Amino acid sequence: MTKTVLITGASRGLGAALAEALAPTHHIIAVARTTGALEELDDRIQAAGGSATLAPMDITTADAMAVLCKGIHGRWGSLDLWMHTAIHAAPLAPADHVDAKHLAKSMDINVTATSRLITYVAPLLGQSGQAVFFDDPCAGEKFFGSYGASKAAQMALARSWQAETANIGPKIQIATPAPMPTGTRARFFPGEDRSPLSDTKTQAAAVLAQL
């Protein structure tokens, strides 16, 4: 029986690279807001002989995530793996100039939506599934107030879940990929020389080797 993987934030960057890397062994359930990018991912997966279910949804919409997880249960009964790569990268700003709307969006996507997804996805993973989160440690760094605070809160959620399930499952893992030439990083460092950065496919392979 083909294994299943839910990838939230699958349309580009590391999420897309993970989807393509897992396609030979898993049915990909790809979630992202950008329909066009999901369709392009599906084309690449099908060209390589894999299969995917596309879910053009916003992870901050509770009803949509409930429908998604109910649909997964109805069709497959469970999940083998969940990889959560969806993130909001708020513009860099001094702490005393943080925009309230950017902070609210960061917390909504990076923290509240993650917490809700843990609640919805945990029953699908059961005791034998795995979930993977991705750390990007920048809390306390200059100008990273919104992103750093929300990312640190997200990791706190993941680590609590990891500690709580250590003996009973599901297995929770936290990976820290090397810097990659993604759209998220480009928002933070627009003039950066991207040539020394690690390719997303290389980092996807490194993450999967840890599973």
From TrEMBL:
InterPro entries reported in the protein's UniProt record: NAD(P)-bd_dom_sf (IPR036291), SDR_fam (IPR002347)
Short name of one Pfam family: adh_short
Keyword Oxidoreductase: yes
Isomerase in keyword set: no
Gene Ontology CC: membrane
Keywords: Oxidoreductase
Gene Ontology molecular function: oxidoreductase activity
Record-linked PANTHER family: DEHYDROGENASE/REDUCTASE SDR FAMILY MEMBER 7B, SHORT CHAIN DEHYDROGENASE
Annotated family: Belongs to the short-chain dehydrogenases/reductases (SDR) family.
The protein's name in its UniProt record: NADP-dependent 3-hydroxy acid dehydrogenase YdfG
Protein's organism: Sulfitobacter mediterraneus
